[in-house]
Amino acid sequence: VLQAPAFVWVSVFSVSALVFTAAVLLFRALLLRGALWSALLGFPAAFVSFEYVRNLTTPHGTAGSLAYSQLNFLPFLQLASITGPWGMSFLLLLFPAALAIGLHLRGAAPKQALRAAGAGMGVIVLALIFGVVRLALPAPGQSVKVGLIASDEPANHGVVAEGAETGRLFRDYAREAAQLAARGAQAIVLPEKLGVVVDPDTTGDAIFQALADETKATIVVGVVGVSPPVKYNQARV
User: Fold this and answer.
1) pLDDT digits over 106-127, tens only?
2) HEC states along the chain?
3) Are 94 and 48 in contact (CB under 8 A)?
């Protein structure tokens, strides 16, 4: 779907795998030396540091972060309001680290095992409590009703070809966007890489600009913008 060369995917995931392996080996070395608290914190800190550096040094930002695995878990997602994705990734890795320490020491040092595992789990419980409370509280300030559209039709999966196929898809999405605007949506977001638009074709812009003018909604459309010889992954507003 993303149309990236195979060597790009291999290099991205290979580096992540190597860093994760190094973080696990660091955890194991610290744990075997009896440095329980360093092991508990070192494992998540090492991998989150890698995620943060990758965010600073690549054009893809936070893409690939472990935090994205929790987008549907709303109580935990609230942590991002304080820490960004970094705190989420940290706690996701703190959880197995705490479990591993507890299991490793349960026979030889049960009290230490309970303290380390309890501390790790306790932080996660506090984060979830924060999330539940935050979701229950009324949001301060002005609210914006956002509409999201995604089609499950097989013909709409992947990157749709340019020309008539993309035009058909734009019209289908515009019809659904109009319905959301009628229900009060002030901002409407369509999928990434919805279709392919080749310069100087502005069919999609015309369709959605007319709809935005009519409904007064802000519409965000993801397209592959082709301006030979290059392609852009665009969000057109």
Assistant:
1) 888 888 889 888 999 999 999 9
2) CCCCCHHHHHHHHHHHHHHHHHHHHHHHHHHHCCCHHHHHHHHHHHHHHHHHHHHHHCCCCCCCCHHHHHCCCHHHHCCHHHHCHHHHHHHHHHHHHHHHHHHHHCCCCHHHHHHHHHHHHHHHHHHHHHHHHHHHCCCCCCCCCEEECCCCCHHHCCCCCCCHHHHHHHHHHHHHHHHHHHCCCCEEECCCCCEEEECCCCHHHHHHHHHHHHHCCEEEEEEEEEECCEEEEEEEC
3) no
CB-based burial, 160-176: b 16+ in 10 Å, e otherwise:
bebeeebbebbeebbee
pLDDT tens, position by position, 206-216: 999 999 999 99
Phi, psi of 218 (to 5 degrees): -90, 125
Structure tokens that stand for 106 in this block = 């349960």
pTM of the model: 0.78
